[in-house]
Amino acid sequence: MASEEELFASVDALLNEEPRLPPPAERARLREAAGITQARLATALKTTTQSVKNWENGRSEPKSPRLDAYQRLLNGWAAKYPAPGAAPTASVAASAPAASTEPAASGVETADAPQAPAVAAAAPARPAIRPAATSRRPALKKAAQPAADPRFPHGPLAVLDGDGCAYGVDGIVLDCPASTVVELVEWTLRESGLGAPKLNRYGKDSDPLIVLTAAAAVKLGLPERLEGHEQRRSLRLPEDHPVVKQVVKAKWRLTQRGFGPWARIYRKAQGRDRQCVQLAILSWDALDERSWPGVAEMEPADVARVLSVYAQRVITPRGSTAVSGLELMTALRPPTRAVRDEASGNWVPGHNPGSLGTEPMDPAPPEATPEHPVVVESGWTGGFLNEEAYQWVRPVDLLTDEECTLPFAVGLDLNTAFLAAAARLVVGLSAPDHFVSPKFNPKIPGSWLVDLSHVEVDPRLPSPFTPDGTRPTEPAWYQTHTIAYAQELGYNLQPLEAYLRRETGAYLDPWHDRLKAAYVDTLVDLGVTKDLSDAEFLAAMERHKDVDPAMAAVLAAIKATVKGGIGKLRERPQGKKYQEGERWPALQRPTWRPDIRAAVIAKARINMHRKLRNMATMTGLYPLAVLSDCVVYPSPGASPLDFLPYAASGKPQPGGFRLGPTPGLAKLEGVQSMLWAVDLMEQGYNPARHIKGGDAVLDEGE
Q1: At CA 339, angle to CA 334 and CA 341, rounded to 5?
Q2: Which of 113, 420, 457, 583 has the highest local Cβ count within 10 Å?
Q3: Antiparallel, parallel or unpaired: β 173-175 and 336-340
Q4: Is the pLDDT assigned to residue 100 strictly greater than 60?
Q5: Pure H helices in 95-180
Q6: What is the structure's pLDDT at 57?
Q7: What's the rounded Cα separation, in Å, for the pair 307 and 186?
Q8: SS3 sequence of 67-79
Q9: C-alpha dihedral over 430, 431, 435, 441, to 10 degrees?
């Protein structure tokens, strides 16, 4: 029998054990229920956002004293926000939650997407939500996880089929009785339980998305296909179409984009209530095959799975991936926040520091496009910023005999290179100011007129200063990162002119963090993890699209969101009726910022050149061609393992190209015969264009 001393020692050991935290998923649920972002929690606990992400993903655990503080916080949240189905504690059951005294900041209504006010957080008159158990079909997958926000128990969206079944997140199936578009909108807002909480405390909740199959569209009185000379994604129903008339008669509104593949139906503000539903019609090419490969042909439940994962990791789609990429920037950096008016004491919308504000801002003339009113009205002839991605081929006469005898040309594609360039990127937040003969400062974002024609670079590498890789011949406009790299190469430069911005900030940081996490997490779902060796990584990437086509489609959409979002920062005019000098709709957005786009592309191109230069130093290898974020090297074998630099320990050498799933690291993107590549290069052909996945420009369209 144990002695008293032994028992007390055992009890003391238990008392001295570190507190046990709830499971990682519960930690995330409690934080989201409290409306706290990972970044804000990290600030409170004096740690990094990545550490909080690791705690909520189960990758690591906090240590004392941070562990004790985290446990105390979670216990407090657990008392306030018990899991659905759990018995509330006496203290919570006895008291009602206090109403917030800080109203949400109002948004800005634009021609592209009017921001109708948000639905009240707890509307007492709201009809009961139909549970999934009453659906006419059973759930196809496991039961839905506890909702992070009780206002949206059924997730962000649903895919409606012709038999009235609406497929949602985690296999849930709802019974939708709507037979018209108006009835569908009203059912979505009152009964569906669809929607998503805001991504920033000053933002707005995401409106519910209803995706219509071809059968559902026909049932609601819509044509199965939109036909016309233009692409279906550009077509709209005529104003005299019966469905459009029904919507208007019921006092609902359509945005200026009309009733197209992505139709947005809303009503004006009623106090703080938000009444807005987004529709997407599959048979009208709402999901572009380039961004959502194979999704439009999937079964409704699988379409719901793809879009739900994208919505949970990125944002609820509101249009093309380019539109979603831009909307994500605004959702993470809302233009306004609630501030107290000293005169009246009321809460009013005020500027949110770090955002782009509510008003559009004209660029400096060299940052604009030739058709922009700033250029046309001023008669500007001083040249334009030309910060674009690489399109370069090494001249054949610079190939050595040894290179020509190598049997392979291997393409390396940098994972989301433009996303990696957005990390910790300082951009201008205020209007540009003009300076003459300024001293160059690499910390100030802007556009500089500089002569770089005297800067010497190895002719076997592309020039870091031009997209086509040719050496500059006269003064030209460059973004700050390009000039800073010239200084890094050892050249002192004196700018002739500059357009600089006094207010700066890392505007894209939260956008980068969310998309990077979405990209890496989706790769993990496909079996591509950070702990793989380089050989295992290449093997996993070779088969990742076959592991789970749905998750592969999500991955493609995330990549398209990055490039499309950046490209849309400089959306050009569209439509046959446009005339030079007119303002096109995109110019009314605060996010029409060609200078930010130029900063991202310039940094990505400089990052590429730095790696090319380091590779030449370490291995003596020079590229055959570079197209955007894809570089082609001659190789003795069919794998990048045959030429990438490795230390004696087997670890990759720092500074050059490295394989891995993280944005900015490389993967094998294609292998071609070296003799085939050289033969075509003699004809002026770019071999990088035959590397699958290579693309020369960032999408600026819808």
Answers
A1: 145
A2: 113
A3: unpaired
A4: no
A5: none
A6: 79
A7: 22
A8: HHHHHHHHHHHHH
A9: 30
Overall pTM surpassing 0.85 (yes/no): no
**Cβ distance 448 to 508 under 8 Å?**
no
Could you give the CA distance from residue 390 to residue 498 in angstroms, rounded to a whole number? 24
Q: Is the pLDDT of residue 694 over 50?
A: no
Residue 306 backbone zone (phi > 0: left; psi -120 to 50: alpha; other: beta): alpha
Q: In whole angstroms, what is the distance from residue 449 CA to residue 470 CA? A: 18
Cβ partners under 8 Å of residue 129, min gap 6: 153, 154, 191, 192, 193
What stretches of 526-646 show up as alpha helix (H) in DSSP?
534-547, 549-567, 594-619
Q: 587 to each of 360, 500, 572, how far by Cα in Å?
A: 7, 20, 9
- The pLDDT, as a whole number, for residue 325 is 97
Q: Which amino acid is at 313?
A: R
Give the separation between CA 52 and CA 267, rounded to whole angstroms. 39
Please, which residues bridge with residue 504 across strands?
Answer: 428
Q: Beta 262-266 vs 253-254: how paired, if at all?
A: antiparallel
What sign does the CA torsion over 449, 451, 457, 461 have?
Answer: positive
Mean pLDDT of the residues in the chain: 84
* Nearest one of 590, 1, 40 to 335, comparing CA atoms: 590
Give the tens place of pLDDT for each residue, 612-671: 999 999 999 999 999 988 999 999 998 899 999 888 877 888 888 889 888 887 777 765
pLDDT tens column, 448-474: 999 999 999 899 999 999 999 999 999
Q: Cβ(510)–Cβ(352) under 8 Å?
A: no
| Section 325-349 average pLDDT | 91
**What six digits make up the tokens of 606?**
């400089």
Cα–Cα distance between 228 and 454 in angstroms, integer? 53
Q: How many CB atoms lie within 10 A of CB 23?
A: 10
User: Average pLDDT in the 380-397 region?
Assistant: 94
- What strands lie across the sheet with 666-673, from one edge to the other? 391-393, 625-627, 630-635, 408-414, 666-673
Q: What is the largest CA-CA distance in the chain?
A: 98
Q: According to the 3-state scheme, what is the secondary structure of 50-112?
A: HHHHHHHHCCCCCCCCHHHHHHHHHHHHHHHCCCCCCCCCHHHHHCCCCCCCCCCCCCCCCCC
Angle, nearest 10°, between helix axes 66-80 and 24-33?
A: 60
| pLDDT beyond 70 at 672 | no
Does the CA dihedral 250-253-257-261 come out positive or negative? negative
SS3 at position 449: strand
| Chain Cα centroid distance, residue 102 | 29
Q: Which of 691, 591, 592 is nearest to 633 (CA)?
A: 691
Q: Which two tokens stand for residue 498?
A: 């500059």
Task: Enter the tokens of residue 353.
Answer: 């520091």
- Rounded CA-CA distance 60/70 in Å is 14
Q: What pLDDT score was predicted for residue 647?
A: 84
Query: What gap in Å lies between CA 328 and CA 311, rounded to an integer?
Result: 11
Report residue 672 as tokens.
């071609």
Give residue 233's pLDDT band: very low, low, confident or very high (50, 70, 90): low
Q: What tokens does 618 get?
A: 């370490």
Least confident of 12-26, 98-112, 227-241, 401-415: 98-112
Write the pLDDT tens digit of every residue in 470-518.
Answer: 999 999 999 999 999 999 999 989 999 999 999 999 999 999 999 999 9
